[in-house]
Amino acid sequence: xxxxxxxxxxxxxxxxxxxxxxxxxxxxxxxxxxxxxxxxxxxxxxxxxxxxxxxxxxxxxxxxxxxxxxxxxxxxxxxxxxxxxxxxxxxxxxxxxxxxxxxxxxxxxxxxxxxxxxxxxxxxxxxxxxxxxxxxxxxxxxxxxxxxxxxxxxxxxxxxxxxxxxxxxxxxxxxxxxxxxxxxxxxxxxxxxxxxxxxxxxxxxxxxxxxxxxxxxxxxxxxxxxxxxxxxxxxxxxxxxxxxxxxxxxxxxxxxxxxxxxxxxxxxxxxxxxxxxxxxxxxxxxxxxxx
Length: 291
Fold this sequence. Notes:
Blueprint: H1 3-29, H2 35-57, H3 68-85, H4 91-112, H5 119-136, H6 145-168, H7 179-201, H8 208-236, H9 238-244, H10 248-260, H11 266-289
Helix pairs in contact: 1-4, 1-8, 1-10, 2-3, 2-7, 2-8, 3-6, 3-7, 4-5, 4-6, 4-10, 4-11, 5-11, 9-11
């Protein structure tokens, strides 16, 4: 794969990740669909798209039981928290809290698993956490606490999901290292849980526009976006992949401003600089030491 093609596919994948924030905010923030219904439609659409991709590629592969329970749990927490948070948060602010919480969770997981953590990664995680605290601390009245907590839970969920996937990859067999198959199974197993939560606690109120935005988020920017990311990861390498993801909160903020007309203040950009600097220090160091 040429360098130009790698850059183009990577940029498209990052745009898809950022678009999830914009689509969710558009649908839930406008009241076109309640957040739990959005999560339910999104996970069903994503599961169907991923199942189609796995089938076209050559059939169903069971990725193994290792990490499956924690993976599904983390995915459910992420999907529900992500949708609920966008009742109150702007697209860029939500993506920034999500991204920072994911990194802090994965750092904590590495420590608990007994991994050797370089000093620069401690520094990076500390900066990212400090930026998150600065973003949601009282005084600026810029970030609703309830929305921030919901998105932080979503970030913790996605961090658990990522840690579970990394642990499952240490198993044996084709399925253990097949990221697409593992993601397809996780989405499929999460469907009855998320749908059940939506039916019990959600209003299940939706207009056609909200449903279509949820389908677009699940099938395209989640299903196809994840598949594209898995395809380009081997060409990127760990360090460049980590750095590439630093663009997602900024792209989400730009998308929110252009598509929805959301404005973000100076506090957001200052917190962005602190959080993303910390994540860059931690992630690049981690990626380089693995090579």
